[in-house]
Amino acid sequence: MRGKIIFQTIAASLFLFLAVGPHGTAAQTIGPDFQRLGSRFEPAFTVISDRSGYIWTGTTHGLTRYDSHGAISYLHDENDTSSLCHNTVNALLCLAKTDGMLVGTNRGLCLYDPAVDRFHRIEACGTRHIRTLLEHNDSLWVGSSSGLMLLTGYEKGFAHAKAEEVIRERHIMCCREVDGDIYFGTYNKIYQWQRERGIREIPVPLLNRWYSNLVYDIIPSAKIPGTLLLGTEYGLVRFDPATGRTGMELHDIPVRCFMRSKNGDLWTGTDKGIYLFGSDGREQHIIHESGNAASISDNVVSRIHEDPRGNIWVATDHGICMTMQSSFYTFVHLKSITGSDEGLAIRTMCKDREGALWLGGKNGLIRVGADATTWFKSDGGSPDRRVSHNKIRSLHADEIGVWIASDGGLDLYEYASRRFRRFTITEPTRRYNSSWMYGISEDNRGRLWISTYEGGVFVVDKRRLLENTAPSYTADLHFSTANPGFPSNITSKIAVNGTLCFVTTDEGTVTIDTETGEIRPVRLPCGVRAQALDSYGDRVFLGTNTGLYIWHEDSIREIPGPRLPVWVVAADKERVWAVSDAIMSAYDIRSGGGNRTPSDRQQPAVELSDRR
User: Fold this and answer.
1) What is the pLDDT of residues 138-151, one digit of tens each?
2) Please, what is the Cα angle at 533 between 530 and 538, to 5 degrees?
3) Strand-pair category, 235-239 with 228-232
4) Paired sense of beta strands 15-16 and 44-49, if any
5) In 3D, which of 149, 127, 150, 147 has the Cα closest to residue 187?
6) Residue 345 region, left (φ>0) first, then alpha (ψ -120 to 50), else beta?
7) Phi, psi dihedral angles at 465 (to 5 degrees)
């Protein structure tokens, strides 16, 4: 069985990180911004990440796997025994010693095998309504609406697993390990399993006030050692198993799940949004806001998960959403910068000599200064205040002004006059088109390197260009398929680092030696293609179809971050900014977090997708 594949666009509002301003202070965020994933918004009950970095979520309409391109959905098929055993998925568990994943559904338990993309039914669990799963010391606890089972011996294969009925005819909602003991939540009480004593029932006095108060989740308290926090249908309960003392922390709010993040914050999912209790004592209530695409998908939160990169995923009654909570990243609304709901679709950015931030995209050019925000377009304002084209491809700031490469050619915004100048550049044969300019960079000899669509790379002496009074300027150098080793005239991004000029093309990425003109291919991991570039110091940062990479001394490694296509990269001595279609993330170079090495399979980059 192949999972029914539904490629869904991971669409969300664009959030922009405002770079350090002229006075050296970074913009602060009031709360986390969320990105909603997928086009189906049925209730989601659980979410986890696997060893390969995929995000899995269980819903009322099957099992969904998210990656950087979209989503793949797996559904139950009555005629296929290797399909998902039921479409309502309540619990997921990645096994400790294999790549397999257990899937608990409304009609039994199955094992997903990624090697063959198949599901195997686990007959020992029958057709029970599975609610929770926990692996502990080579034992698997399976909680269902009809009791608790303990599976052992499954390391040889689940066909050989032995099942023991531990608790009968009880609705087991959660299994949690606390200090070596296992706790199970049910109606009006909890159970505890200890290796020496086995299972024992623990009444929770406060819960007896209600006829049926289901314990949804259990977590140890960080504030009072030895006590537990119980998420129940009627609120958040603090409980000391040793003394039986109880206290209500949140009243009359169903508390469905807990998640303690790596930094010690407690994320609490309820029927009224998320209550975030910070390790520093701060508290925050996060709710769904109608009309705000950056809020959580729904106020009914069933599960919260932190992936290995520090991102927070939230399963709600209206689908799944995520927020970047890693300390590497910060976000603010684009509208708060531009003052407009009009889209920009950022594709390039830079910071100028005066400390202003420049943003270019599909709808013109924006200058964000300390005093004002100005939007420049090709179809508005006086002639000397217009850009040549609204589709801005690349920006480069120097001591004179900001150079703009666009679908209309080359412009220069001069600091002194606050006006634009336009330049027409040709090459000696005039055979190649240079009007569609996609990238611009500068070498240490004061030459501009310009990548074009269908025209290859033009090299221009900046001083002579500025002094030129003729209608056009003939490029000092030109690289195209006429040069041995140059893969394509359809070039995209460009960045100069030392004596090497990096160029992305639709047939791969190359370097050009700025002194000798030697052309060499850049080897990227298999399946990774570069589509954005920037250089700072002795490093080059590459935005790819799967995330952000760094080149240094002829080696390439991945920078931890979201596995999303990166269309824009901008770097300085402290940070690297990466823009995808959904978000803009800022990676703090000083944190030293970019040491994870990608696959050792080094092969040429494959075809770029940024075609006209």
Assistant:
1) 889 999 999 999 99
2) 120
3) antiparallel
4) unpaired
5) 147
6) left
7) -60, -45
